[in-house]
Structures are given as structure tokens and as C-alpha cells.
Specification:
The complex is a heterodimer of chains A (about 300) and B (about 110). Chain A is built from 13 helices and five strands. Chain A is of the alpha/beta class and about 300 residues long. The chains are: A alpha/beta (about 300), B alpha/beta (about 110). The interface between A and B is medium-sized, with 23 and 24 residues.
Chain lengths: ~300, ~110
């Protein structure tokens, strides 16, 4: 449980993490000085570069959710302008990182994939490279090339942050969805006196099987059920573990004096179960829910008649 | 501990307490086997509703008791196993093959009177 909460938190690198990330791309004090050469080139062109970046990004259908949404688009443009100013000036501190991550989250919210974003980012860096190359014609070409390579390091530093953020954002979404699915209660429905239906939908893991069985057993006691029809039409995978869970649920219900009938095992699942040797020993199964209910009513009917007579 | 065994027409009813010692189990078994013969009982209802644990030992004792009672001509119904207990038993693979099971005393009596 704790680990999933830790994973669900958005990425927040500490100052030490940032130092490490800068060291990974071999960015130090010398490089910081070199950037000063580029700053006067890039800073006046921030508007133009930003426009170019989004124009390029906007060509891809995958990025439409960003460029068509005025609020998101404005946020992204503002952050990109700040990015361009900061990436040639620094400081590369927690504020810089936080801004990068914020922009990454804007991309993630707009559903922009890594590959699309990285493509556009490389276009942007090429554009800056072109600016530097243009200036180098009249100046020191070697120095211009060197400073561009320094900029490259910062670009890769940004990439490590943004890809991590996009990945962690996606993991967070997956985790949230998993939690949501897990929390979806499995309803136990009463069809008629002493007859319950448990329609199962989704993957059954150990945790869910436990909650489901407990819920079913409580319902058997509280509603005095004699028959339970468990419908597994919506369960995509039945392996030996899941089969074992079903068998346990049926056995537990039997100990409380109720009969469980399993329905809805598809042709594919039946074949798969036999092939892998997953057994449902002692669990009566019928083809579909309708048959299951009829079977259960037969069971109840016989008893009801016996009691009435 | 002297457990009260109730006689109701041709049935016997006993409620298991929260826990029993080995001696209690033995006494209960001897008493039930004797009373089944004495009252010519057809069935025995064992109420387990206050037990919050049925381990493999208890399960085996109840099951063998049911088998012995069967040899004396009485069928056994275990009633009132609580959800948590039933689940734990199923997880441990514990079964009561010799006894029938029912939700509560009402159900158990009905099952035996059929």
C-alpha cells in the first residue's frame, strides 16, 4: 500500500537529485560560463523560437488537444518562453526543474506522447543551432560550435526531466485507474427470496477475490440465501489461481449451507482452463446466467415444496 | 465443561461454545453417541454460530463425530458457521464431508425433517 502511494506522487526532484542529473549530462561550471555566449543570441529570438516550436508541434494530429485548447496552449507557450530564456541563462535550480515538470504535465494532460514531444524538441534545438551557425559565419566558428554543444547538454538534461515526468504521470494515471477498478464494489443482488446473483466483471486477483468472497458470505448470512449464482461472463482470464478462488468461495458458501452455481464460462476460457489444468472441483457450472437462475430455482423449489408439504 | 444437549422430538441439538478442550470434545462425542442410541434420534444439529475459529483439529473432530453418528443411524447438520470462519476454512482447505451444513438452526431443523 505504502509503495503505491509513494509512486502515485508526482515527480519532485530534490536539490541533490538535480545536481546528479546535471552531472549525468556532464554540465558543470565551465559549461555554465559557455552558455553566456549563446544567451545574447537566443534571448532576443525567444518569441520567434516559441512560435516555431508550437507551429511544428501543431502539424501533428497527436498534438491537437494542446494547440486547440486556448488555456493549455497559453500556459504551454508561457512556460516555453520562460524555458528558452532560462535554458541559456540558468540557474538550473529547483524552480527551473519545477517549471520543466509543470510544462511536462501540461503535455501529459493534453495526451502528448513522448515521441511527439521529443521530435518537436529536437526541431527547436536545431532551430537554435541554426541561429548560432548563422552568427558563426561572422565570428568564431569553433566557439559557436562549442557553445552549441553545451546547450545540447542542457537540452538532454531537460529531456531526462520531461521524459521522467511524462512516464511518472502515466504511471500515476495507471495506478489511479487500478485503484478505481479495485474499489469498484462487486454487487451482490437478490433476485428473489433466498437467491442471490453475483455478476463478476474484470480481472480477479487475490485481493479482489477475498473481498468478493467475504461480501458474498456476508450477504448469504444477512439475506438468508440458499443459492448463489456467480456469473463470470465478464471475467477475462481464469487461470488456476482464479479457479482456486472460485472453488474456495463455493466451499465457504457450502459451509454456510448455501449452494453456489457458476455460470458464464466462455468456450475460450473453458478450453484454456482444461489446457492449463485449472480445476473447479466440486463447483457446479452451467452455461449462462439464465440456466444458472433456473438451476437455482429448481434447487430452491424442491426445498420450498418439501417445507410446504 | 458439561455441554447441554437438547432433545427435540427425534433430534438432538448442541451448541458449541467459543472454544473446547480435548476433554470437552471427548465428553461431547461420548455423550452424543450415547444419547443418539438412548433417544433413538434421527439427526443431530451442531450449532457453531458462536465459534470464531474452526481450525483443522476442530474440523476433523466434528467430521469424525458426524461419521460416528452416521454409523449409529443419525445424520449431522452443522449450522451457523460465520462468514469469516467459513472463509478461513475454505482457504485452509477444510471440509466437512460427513456432515451437512445449513445457515442457522431453523434451516438445519428443516433439513433434517425433510
Amino acid at each position: 500500500m505504502n509503495t503505491s502511494i509513494a509512486h502515485a506522487r508526482p515527480l519532485e526532484p530534490t536539490a541533490a537529485d538535480i545536481e546528479k542529473r546535471l552531472a549525468y549530462v556532464d554540465f558543470g561550471d565551465v559549461e555554465r560560463d559557455s552558455l553566456k555566449v549563446i544567451a545574447p543570441l537566443v534571448t532576443p529570438s525567444v518569441e520567434a523560437l516559441t512560435a516555431r516550436f508550437f507551429e511544428y508541434l501543431g502539424k501533428f494530429p497527436e498534438a491537437q488537444a494542446l494547440v486547440r485548447d486556448p488555456v493549455r496552449f497559453e500556459t504551454a507557450r508561457r512556460l516555453k518562453r520562460e524555458h528558452l530564456r532560462a535554458m541559456v541563462a540558468g540557474p538550473f535550480d529547483q524552480k527551473y526543474v519545477a517549471d520543466r515538470l509543470e510544462l511536462a504535465r501540461v503535455y501529459a494532460a493534453a495526451g502528448i506522447e513522448n515521441r511527439v514531444f521529443i521530435g518537436a524538441f529536437q526541431h527547436l534545438i536545431s532551430a537554435i543551432g541554426a541561429l548560432i551557425a548563422e552568427r558563426a559565419k561572422t565570428g568564431d566558428a569553433a566557439l559557436a560550435f562549442k557553445s552549441f554543444m553545451v546547450l545540447q547538454r542542457i537540452a538532454f538534461f531537460d529531456l531526462t526531466l520531461i521524459t521522467d515526468a511524462l512516464v511518472s504521470e502515466r504511471e500515476r494515471t495507471i495506478r489511479q485507474q487500478q485503484d478505481a477498478i479495485r474499489e469498484l464494489s462487486t454487487p451482490v443482488l437478490q433476485v428473489r427470496d433466498r437467491l442471490l446473483i453475483v455478476p463478476l466483471v474484470g480481472v480477479v486477483d487475490s485481493h479482489r477475490a477475498r473481498e468478493l468472497t467475504e461480501g458474498m458470505l456476508r450477504a448469504i448470512r444477512d439475506r438468508r440465501a440458499k443459492a448463489v449464482v456467480m456469473d463470470v461472463t465478464g471475467v477475462p482470464i481464469v487461470d488456476s489461481k482464479v479457479a482456486n478462488h472460485f472453488a474456495q468461495a463455493c466451499e465457504a458458501a457450502r459451509l454456510m449451507g448455501a449452494h453456489v452455481i457458476l455460470t458464464g464460462i466462455s468456450a475460450e476460457i473453458a478450453q484454456a482452463m482444461v489446457t492449463i489444468g485449472a480445476e473447479l472441483e466440486g463447483v457446479p457450472t452451467v452455461s449462462d446466467l439464465q440456466d444458472g437462475i433456473e438451476e437455482a430455482e429448481k434447487l430452491l423449489g424442491v426445498r420450498a415444496n418439501g417445507a410446504a408439504a | 465443561m458439561n455441554l447441554p444437549i437438547l432433545k427435540q422430538a427425534d433430534l438432538l441439538i448442541v451448541t458449541l461454545p467459543e472454544s473446547l478442550t480435548d476433554g470437552d470434545w471427548r465428553a461431547l462425542k461420548d455423550e452424543l453417541l450415547a444419547r443418539v442410541g438412548k433417544h433413538r434420534s434421527r439427526g443431530v444439529v451442531i450449532d457453531a454460530s458462536v465459534m470464531d475459529v474452526m481450525d483443522s483439529y476442530a474440523t476433523r473432530l466434528v467430521d469424525s463425530m458426524a461419521r460416528m453418528l452416521k454409523l449409529r443411524g443419525a445424520s449431522t447438520v452443522v449450522v451457523g458457521i460465520q462468514p469469516g470462519v467459513a472463509f478461513a476454512m475454505a482457504q485452509l482447505g477444510l471440509k466437512l464431508p460427513a456432515a451437512q451444513t445449513a445457515l442457522d438452526l431453523d434451516e438445519g431443523l428443516e433439513l433434517l425433517r425433510r
